[in-house]
Amino acid sequence: MITHETNALYRANETRYQSMQYKRCGNSGIKLPKISLGLWQNFSQTHALSNARNMIHAAFDNGITHFDLANNYGPPYGSAEETFGQIMKKDLMPYRDELFISSKAGYDMWPGPYGDGGSRKYLIASCDQSLKRCGLDYFDVFYHHRMDPETPIEETMRALDYIVRSGRALYVGISNYHAEETQKAIEILNALGTPLLVHQPRYNLFDRWIENGLTDVLQTNGVGSVVFSPLAQGLLTDKYLHGIPKESRAANDNIVHFGKDNITQDKLNKITALNELAQERGQTLAQMAIAWTLRNTVVTSCLVGASSVEQILSSIETLKFASLSDSESKKIDHILYGP
Ligand SMILES: NC(=O)c1ccc[n+]([C@@H]2O[C@H](COP(=O)([O-])OP(=O)(O)OC[C@H]3O[C@@H](n4cnc5c(N)ncnc54)[C@H](OP(=O)(O)O)[C@@H]3O)[C@@H](O)[C@H]2O)c1
User: Is the minimum distance from the CB of 228 to ligand 1 under 6 angstroms?
Assistant: First the structure.
């Protein structure tokens, strides 16, 4: 395991490809690291650039080639892309061809009728803004962030196809689309000649919705998946077992999607039991939660978030442990759902 110290001139570690494992993304030419890093939280202009830089370095030095962004990651919106752009410019441009960088549009981004949803106007303008903030010529994959029921899906898919044909991205992805919507998107994109590379859904021990139809659609059509919030934003770690630490995501009042209310007694009981099982395996609960997502053959990459270098290194270490056995998976189900 390579740890990293900030230095003025970044040179990627030469052994970076020695231990990371890579998996083919569906039926495509792309292989992704089994662990990818997302910049949703902790990379905005309100966070220390030095920590953001150290985290990106530590990830790449240990074989994480895939970094995930979106137009609205911040706060304020756009600032995670700006942070990433600064790190690209200073450190990573020589390694651009070794990186697989994604961004997205789909949630509210700017005021008025054209800064939200799934229209051609929004997606193309937002992609251009994101490229500028990141200082990139192209994204490796550009996602529609969520299904927009008000825009014809044909328009949204045509916009994604155009984003590829115009050189703004190499592949297209969709995120948070349900099974039937995904099937429809796949058919439209196939007819346009720009097959869907990847779906990005939430997937963790507390949220298994993808097993109810979506994974079948992805498997049948040879589409990969990069699954987000594998740690349920930190809940599936040992961090909340004895209260809410001051520096944690749950304690941060600026974060609207996760807070103290998410840490219920029922969840704590389950986390405690899961933590004991992880200890029996000789690993942390976070590592077992990541391993659990990767046991699903449809999952290409587990997209973690982090607030420190140590968390990233610990997540990568998951790959050193044996996969979950059937009996361990059954024990997990028993903890989650009872006998
Ligand atoms: N497509 C979408 O709609 C969508 C939605 C959400 C996220 N995403 C993507 O998925 C990425 C990951 O999402 P996420 O941040 O929710 O993922 P996550 O991995 O479930 O949660 C990350 C948080 O867990 C805590 N953590 C991580 N490793 C830990 C460890 N070893 N021990 C203790 N705590 C640990 C940290 O919280 P603390 O800050 O408390 O330390 C960290 O910020 C995002 O960055 C984004 O790229 C996509």
Answer: yes
